[in-house]
Amino acid sequence: MPAYTHLFFDLDHTLWDFERNSNETLTDLYEAYCLYERGGFSVSDFLFAFREVNRQLWELYNRNQIDQQTLREQRFIRIWKYLGASGMPPSQLGADYLAICPTKPHLLPHARETLDYLAGRYRLHIITNGFDDVQQTKIRSANIAHYFEALITSQNSGYKKPHPAIFDYALAQTGAAPHNSVMIGDNLETDISGARALGLDAIFYNPERIAHQSEATIEIYCLSELQQIL
Ligand SMILES: [Mg+2]
User: Fold this and answer.
1) Per-residue model confidence (pLDDT) at position 1
2) Contacts of 107 (CB under 8 A, 6+ apart)
3) What domains appear along the chain, each with residue ranges and CATH number?
4) Which end of the chain offers a freer environment for a tag, N or C, measured as fewer CB atoms within 10 Å?
5) Could you tell me the distance, in angstroms and rounded to a whole number, from the CA of residue 197 to the centre of ligand 1?
């Protein structure tokens, strides 16, 4: 492996266990708002609908086709429609989700021990398309702030992965160069293609072992593999 000095991590679905933290939040809200009585759908249908609709909205957001406000306002309205429920979702549902979900602490398997291992050996940073306030809360809630020097977001850089400008900004902010940097993330488009386009090596975290044809430098199925590779 080249002599890396800087490691850039994605946050959601790479370190912070978005699925688990989000599902816990949604299950609590399903109970608190009596969503079965209101909408007639099961909690598992609610979780599935959220996952589908949220993924679609984030793809639109990453491609600059909708903004943050639209994503936040539309999410539960679209979920309601997706589930074929009548009426509208409770008006506070979206705000409650945004307030509670980032306070959940769960990391993906072996994230913490791997960060412990890497922290003394490399300079660690985060590059995320998430929003400043939300991502800072997640990092605090999961107690991982002390591992990272720079938190690069789509807000503070003005660009979203995979746009080269966000990687350029990250390199400039941290004093890193493409040849001594590696990007680690779960998204082939935003994390892997984006980094590769700028000449950074990229490690694709693929815990579900999806089939793909990307040009990731290395692929891992578990974060603990980083302790052997790096
Ligand atoms: Mg991700």
Assistant:
1) 64
2) 15, 16, 17, 142, 144
3) 6-17+107-229 (3.40.50.1000), 18-103 (1.10.150.240)
4) N
5) 18
pLDDT in tens, 69-98: 999 999 999 999 999 999 999 999 999 999
Q: How far is the CA of 13 from the centre of ligand 1 (A)?
A: 5
Above pLDDT 70, what percent of the chain?
A: 99
Q: Which of 137, 141, 171, 169 is nearest to 154 (CA)?
A: 169
CA of 35 to the centre of ligand 1 (A): 29
Burial of 204 (0-12, 13-18, 19+ CB in 10 A): buried
Cα 184 to ligand 1 centre (Å): 9
Q: What is the pLDDT of residues 92-129, one digit of tens each?
A: 999 999 999 999 999 999 999 999 999 999 999 999 99
Q: Which amino acid belongs to residue 214?
A: S
- Rounded distance between C-alpha atoms, residue 25 and residue 47, angstroms: 10
Q: Which residues of 158-171 are buried (b: 16+ CB within 10 A; e: fewer)?
A: ebbbbbeebbebbb
- Cα 111 to ligand 1 centre (Å): 14
Compute, in angstroms, the gap from residue 191 CA to the centroid of ligand 1. 8
What are 126's two structure tokens? 């985060």
Per-residue pLDDT tens over the stretch 38-74: 999 999 999 999 999 999 999 999 899 999 999 999 9
